[in-house]
Amino acid sequence: MTAQFTPAGTLTAEDLGTIHLIGVGGVGMSGLARLFLTRGIPVSGSELREWPSLAGLRALGGTIHMSHEAANLDGVDTVVYSSAIPQDHLEMAEARKRGLRVLHRSEALAAAMTGRRTVAVAGTHGKTTTTSMVTMVLQQAGADPSFVIGGEISEVGSGAHHGTGEHFVVEADESDRSFLIYRPYVSVITNVEADHLNTYGDLANLEATFAEFARLTDPDGYIITCADDPGGRRLAETLRAEGRRVHTYGEAADADLRLTEVASSAQGVRYLAAIDGRSLGEFRLPVPGRHMGLNSASAVLTTYLLGLPLEAAEAALAAFPGVRRRFERKGVADDVLVYDEYAYHPTSMTLALQTLREVAGDGRLIVVFQPYRLYRTRDLQAEIAAALAIADELVLLEVFGPGELRQPGEGSAALIEAVSLPAERKVFVDSWEAAPVEVARRARPGDVVVTMGAPPISLMGDQLLDALLARADAAADPAGTVPPGGSSGGSAAIGGTVPDAPPGAGTSAAGGAVAPDGAAPAAG
Predict the structure, then answer these.
(1) pLDDT for the residue numbered 260
(2) Are 387 and 424 within 8 A, CB to CB?
């Protein structure tokens, strides 16, 4: 697949001329548009829905077309698309008809990196958080890096920035092999686990591709992997056998940067770090989870290898606000705490749910989960089911799988049967509206509720809070109304819906709305 892509270093951002992004409202595409606009490059984009990011792009001088049509390409030199955009899309076809340059998002991003020292963060999970941490550390050190991240740093409020410094921090996506376009100075690989087997076929092929990515690292640069992750350890062994220097981090005794005395609580995580036996001191984060500490260690190691002051890492991590959709607190209603969490791979789900258990304390943990992609739900069903069994109560929606065709026996109806919770503590709801009703019926004061999984589920947090508030109002006033959403669903029928279905039209064959243009992360 990557043979059709242009490797980094061939083009610069300025070579692209006037740029048009199809589906400019998604997190990845809007971040790229913001980067180009702040660099002084003319940008337009097309969308079908007024996403929150569009107002900011207009304020920066971007032209936003609320339609998809051929006239949007007038005066355009380069058209950029994401993996969410089909090849027969009207504007894609028109761009080729006119002979315009057509680039995948990763190619356009690579052009923006030309001439910079790229820090590329890859891995099966933890990429967005780790990229955000590295970015904040470099900012704290005064390096003013450029960056493009797959999510928004809560404090910064943006997933992209054009900086004046020599470094460019980027989240590198392996789902479609497009990370092989990049030419990193520092490559960070958080972990390597089975995922995207629709692209790779098996774990061996996936691991071989991560090794190929690592080999693209500048010979004078640095390869960083996690010594605690079996896939990362195998990768390090492979590369070292080839004579390459690999720097590792983790709690493992042989890690180059070793973490000890790791402690996590609802207030955050702390650990001591040492490199090659020399103490680097204590590091703290205000967000809980041992996995968060492990992610932050890669940022500490990056800081050390780049020769930046470790005080910058200590200060940045101590103030790290988290990333939107990563352990994001949505609010409290009727003494029930609601979080949103992006995790959909079983390992990241397990880590997130274990951390939420710490937060819940004596309360129960209720998970509202929307699986992301049929192939992942099918291939990793046992592992996903085991993660969901950590919950006290499970409300399961249909799989979000734009463009996928569900075969008999696939999807959430099969998944819920595999979750080892008593029947009364798990339910598959057949509609989006039924989920808040189920949560309001099940949640007790002191419980923690988390919406987890595919991108659309992030829209549900406010509805859960509303349903819980309505429940409280109804309890205070017995003559009041039923919580929003009507009667509870709970049916095993297939085909949940998403309110205000985004552009892309209607529902997919997998059930659930089609992803917004460019909004579904490539990592799906």
Answers:
(1) 95
(2) no
